[in-house]
Amino acid sequence: MIKKVLIACVVLLLVGAGGLFVYFDSIVKSGIEIAGSQVLGTEITVSSVSLSPLNGSGTISDLKVANTDEWDSPYAFELESVSVNVNASSVFSDVIEIESVTIVQPAITYESRITTDNIRSLLANLSSGESDTTGSPEGEAGKSIIIRELRILDAQLNLVTAIATAPIPLPDIEMEDIGDDGQASSIADAIGAVLSEISSSILSSNLPNLDDLRENAEARLQDGVDQARDQVDDAVEDLGGRLRGLLDNN
């Protein structure tokens, strides 16, 4: 009898632990989507989160940040996988402590106009979104955050213009102690710090100018025209050969 009770207790503990893991992942996923969307004023989606409630290490999969409405490309950031190490107990507190964040090969889409670009639009939207959430500090966006280490490695910038699209590698970005200057940052401030660093990295990169993009686009267009002309010439030659064959047979 005692043995059966012990077995039942073990089974219940295992089921409870499994439920805790699922519940924990769901809390983190919802927190990212809700808090991020609130402060940026645009949609943030996450496919899944796998995070251990025991040691706080895990992965955020397929995180996407939508562009604001005035831009053509659907997303500003597409992160296939984000490795994180979180102080698990802090997830339920007012200050979330993140030991490390590593983002490898993120896709960043960059659209620009004369006076602004889509990254700066997100930053401007961030200020507006932050003011909208100050009245509800108990919500997800009202939490504070500390990030000990953030690394963005092998980022791929997709430069989008009216005449061409060009992929450009960005230098790695490393940041430390975001929100750890004596007072934790709001989530809005932390996101703003990261976006500002990315924007500075883009603007200081060796981006091709419009003349270079135009020349590349014209070259690709000319290659297509030449290829089409060759195909037409081959087809005409083939048809001429067939007609000559018919005439010779007659």
Describe the fold and architecture.
This protein has 250 residues and is an alpha+beta fold. It has 2 domains: 2-208, no CATH class; 209-250. The protein contains 4 helices and 10 strands, in the order αβββββαβββββαα. It has helices spanning 2-40, 118-133, 187-204, 210-249; strands at 44-51, 57-66, 75-86, 95-104, 107-111, 144-153, 156-160, 165-169, 173-178, 185-186. Strands 1, 2, 3, 4, 5, 6, 7, 8, 9 and 10 form a 10-stranded mixed sheet that branches. It starts with a helix and ends with a helix. The model is unreliable at 3-21 (pLDDT under 50).
Distance between the termini: 104 Å
Helix content: 40-55%
The residue-averaged pLDDT reads 75
Number of helices: 4
What Rg do the Cα atoms give?
Answer: 27 Å
Give the count of structural domains. 2
- E-strand count: 10
Oligomer: single chain
- DSSP strand content: 25-35%
Low-confidence stretches: 3-21
Please write the string of helix (H) and strand (E) elements.
HEEEEEHEEEEEHH
What is this structure, in a nutshell?
The chain has 4 helices and 10 strands; from the N terminus they run H-E-E-E-E-E-H-E-E-E-E-E-H-H. It has 250 residues and is an alpha+beta fold.
Topology overview:
Blueprint: H1 2-40, E1 44-51, E2 57-66, E3 75-86, E4 95-104, E5 107-111, H2 118-133, E6 144-153, E7 156-160, E8 165-169, E9 173-178, E10 185-186, H3 187-204, H4 210-249
List keywords for this structure.
alpha+beta, 250 residues, ten-stranded mixed beta sheet, disordered N terminus, single chain, 10 strands
